[in-house]
Amino acid sequence: MTFRPAAAIGMLLADVDTPCLLLELDAFEHNLKRLMDSLRGTGVKLRPHAKSHKCPEIALRQIALGAVGVCCQKVSEAEAMVAGGVNDVLIANEVVGAAKLERLIALAQQAKIRVCADDAGNIRDLDAATRAVGVTLDVLVEVDVGAHRCGVAPGAPAVALAKQITSCRNLHFAGLQAYQGAAQHMRKVAERREAIARAVEQVQTTTRMLAAAGIKCDYVTGAGTGSYMFEAASSVYHELQAGSYIFMDADYARNEWTESGIPQFEHSLFVWTTVMSAPEKTRVIVDAGLKASSVDSGMPRVADYSDVDYVKASDEHGVLQLKGATRFKVGAKLKLIPGHCDPTVNLYDWYVCVRNGRVEALWPITARGAVL
Predict the structure, then answer these.
(1) pTM value?
(2) 267-319: per-residue pLDDT in tens?
(3) Domain total of the chain
(4) Is residue 157 situated within a structural domain?
């Protein structure tokens, strides 16, 4: 169910109800353009991850600037994107179970859909589901290049799955999914660079073995906001899946960026919150707690105030510690930078889009709660 937004178009930011999810449009648009500019001349395409924003309006803006489509993690996310006008979606994940496969195949009849696999039994199920309705489906072999999440081992195991896919009448081997997610928040540039270099070696080994087996592989996709320029420079990756660059959360801000070749993106996503209690001079309580901002990657950061820390969250309350001269009265409003943008977005129904201190647009977070 989509609830009414906390604001109306034209409203002053000061009058917007809290807690709500703010998108500062100038910074957001800057980030969109800056990533596309950084890829100019590389020959590598952008397929941004929609799990970050869950919003077709944002996806269409990314595509308008040159993205080839989007990634999703779940069939339900892909359904929301296609319904919103996105016609090229990679589900960068495995889809398992009869109910999900039925929806996947139905979606493949509406738009260009690709999916990943790392298991022989799942490939057989994909083949049976496509044959039942006469649909051909692009399938990527997901290779574990260091994230140790989904994915088959590089080399021979990946080649075996690719061979199985090519033997299926209604499946098409579409390439490799090779995302090194564990590298994205390695703080040191050298650590991230080294992790991606190892991933690239594993992909190269796999593609050489595929070629030796007579299987063409001209599509490798992966990468994230913390590393994408390393993949872009590798001559191995064809598409990049960066997603958080549009928002930039507090955790990404802890990474080193200098000398990485990766642009410094701006914070554009904030939780707008109100001081609801001021019991002490050095402690105030805001109305944004665990249900307003994810803390899996650390507490939110208080924007614009270096002497104020968000130190504790409960369901509906956040505790701010005032370390310097800053003081807040009850009713004061301020911006929090989420620790992790993706799960924070999933808590809200709307983006309240602001420019120059006034609400310019309201965008529904259509795929909020899309976990199936």
Answers:
(1) 0.96
(2) 999 999 999 999 999 999 999 999 999 999 999 999 999 999 999 999 999 99
(3) 2
(4) yes
* 105 within a domain of the structure (yes/no): yes
Q: Tell me how crowded residue 315 is: count the other CB atoms within 10 A of its CB.
A: 8
Please state whether beta strands 358-364 and 350-355 pair in parallel, antiparallel, or not at all (unpaired): antiparallel
* Contact (CB, 8 A) for 20 and 286: no
Q: Which residues form the domain of 283? A: 13-21+265-364
Q: Is residue 101 one of the residues assigned to a domain? A: yes
Residue 371 lies in a domain: no
Length of the chain: 372
Last residue of a domain, one of 187, 213, 248: 248
Residues 170, 309 share a domain: no
CATH code where residue 171 lies: 3.20.20.10
Between the CA of residue 268 and those of 73, 285, 336, 351, what are the distances in Å? 23, 24, 11, 11
Determine the Cα–Cα distance for residues 209 and 216; give it in Å rounded to an integer: 10
Of 191, 221, 248, which residue constitutes the final position of a domain? 248
Backbone angles phi, psi at 45, to 5 degrees: -95, 160
Residues 224-256 have pLDDT tens digits of 999 999 999 999 999 999 999 999 999 999 999
